[in-house]
Amino acid sequence: xxxxxxxxxxRCADEYLDGIEDFIEFAxxxxxxxxxxxxxxxxxxxxLWETIENVGFHLVRNGMIEAYSIWxxxxxxxxxxxxxxAPRVDNVEPIVDPNDQVMGIIQDAFPFASTNINQEGxxxxxxPIDSAEFxxxxxxxxxxxxxxxxxxxxxxxxxxxxxxxxxKIKYRMSNLCFDYFLGVFKRMxxxxxxxxKDHKHAQKVxxxxxxxxxxxxxxKNNCMLFYxxxxxxxTWPICNESRFKMTSQNRTTKIPQKVMRYLxxxxxx
Length: 269
Prior knowledge:
The protein is mainly α. The chain folds into three domains: 4-95, no CATH class; 131-209, no CATH class; 214-268, no CATH class. It has helices at 14-30, 52-62, 80-85, 98-109, 131-145, 157-170, 175-188, 199-206; strands spanning 36-38, 49-51, 214-218, 244-246, 252-256, 258-262. It has a two-stranded antiparallel ribbon. A two-stranded antiparallel ribbon has the order 3-6. It has a two-stranded antiparallel ribbon with strand order 4-5. Strand 4 and strand 5 form a beta hairpin. Helix 1 packs antiparallel against helix 2 (52-62) and helix 4 runs antiparallel to helix 5 (131-145). The radius of gyration is 25 Å and the shape is elongated.
């Protein structure tokens, strides 16, 4: 079977995922009874031993060493001439693409997704998993593995949303502006694309990653936050500054003078 899938930059493409399955089957067939094998992902670089199941997960997250097309360290037999011509895999620098990063974020947000190995090399006792949390994990994994549109190898649904939301925050787009461009992009793509139609739906997809934030109104003079016990106030008693902007006719609007975006730390740890 062709091993061109190793060069595929999209770790969520069917070709790449099918290739991983073939590699795992190959490893089991050539290492009967073995519980651990050398991991050929870019991070482990065939120097670390992992369970066969973990090797599969590493290959999705980190990608396989691109030069490693002859799997001799997992039992493939090659003649001397072939092995001497095989490319070296020492000191391979990891190449990061958006799909790899998204899979890493999912693993960080849901540690139960991979088997934990303690320092002695033994499996840790499984941690109970909340059903709602596992359901959220499955939804994210589905979006991470789903192509943005049929045949798209560069972006999964989740990767596209993360990239677009990053641009929104970086360039301080309003929700209205973001919705407009999202609609334009969606019309540019093939009709069977899976891009969310607006900011609200994009946020729902990212909810389980702990990447959301809370908007809190702040005093114009930076002396307080309209938060918790002060949440219902319209003016701050110390400086008497209004919470909301005023019109030229000195009328109060519902537009806050200053907004702080609070990113909860706990979901990110």
